[in-house]
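Subject: Sanity check before I submit

Could someone independently write out the structure tokens for this chain? I want to compare against mine line by line before I put it in a report. The sequence has 242 residues.
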Amino acid sequence: MNRIDDNNGGIGWKGLIFFAFFLAFMATGAFAQWKSFKLTDRGDTINCMDQKGLKQGPWLETYPALRGNPGYEEEGNYLDGKKDGIWRRYSLQGDVLAVETYKWGLLNGKSQYYSIFGIERDESWWAIDPGKKYDTLEVPDLYAEGNYRTVIVPNEGRSMKHGTWNFYNSQTRRIESSEEFIRDSAVGVLGAMGISPKKTQPKNEGDSSTTKKTDKPLTVQEWEKKNSGKKKVKVRDGSTGY
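---
Independent answer below. Compare away.
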């Protein structure tokens, strides 16, 4: 049996050793950035933890049954330790339970939830950038349907209900009810509270009577009565300044 070396057109035993060292070096460099990781049966790298201890890239997480609650699995991507993009949740039997969308680790956009019969509801969320200290919100006026005022509030870095929420009959897959939200507030706020908004009646020509005002809440009446005659009573309405 002839030895394969450089003189016979092969890479030689020295070349084989160099090639093996080269592959080892490349592998070491590729994984050096990770503090820990896993390999799938196909050789894909998942569940990577960087040197700062932050989750990065694709992850598959398994949660066993606990205190009567069934176990489940989740798969999706992390970006700097926060969920990012589409995440899917499955039962341990492989049935889809939820499809959620994340941004900055917060629910953002459409999310859908399922039972063994099919879809049960879909939700719509708005994520507030946790990097901002304050956020501007449009708050609906409880006593003037369709009117809004702008307020500036501290940013707590959270998700708010925003858009259409649909609730389905999971067997027929038809929508049974829907609800609209604008940044955590129901669009029809008074309707959601079971209150019919009182609309002002336009004055008839020649009518000298003033437009009827909406009745004030009891708490407002009591406050005005208590502070009647006082000067420079400051009221904080949630906006910046007084």
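---
OP: Matches mine. For the report I'm noting this point. The mean pLDDT is 75.
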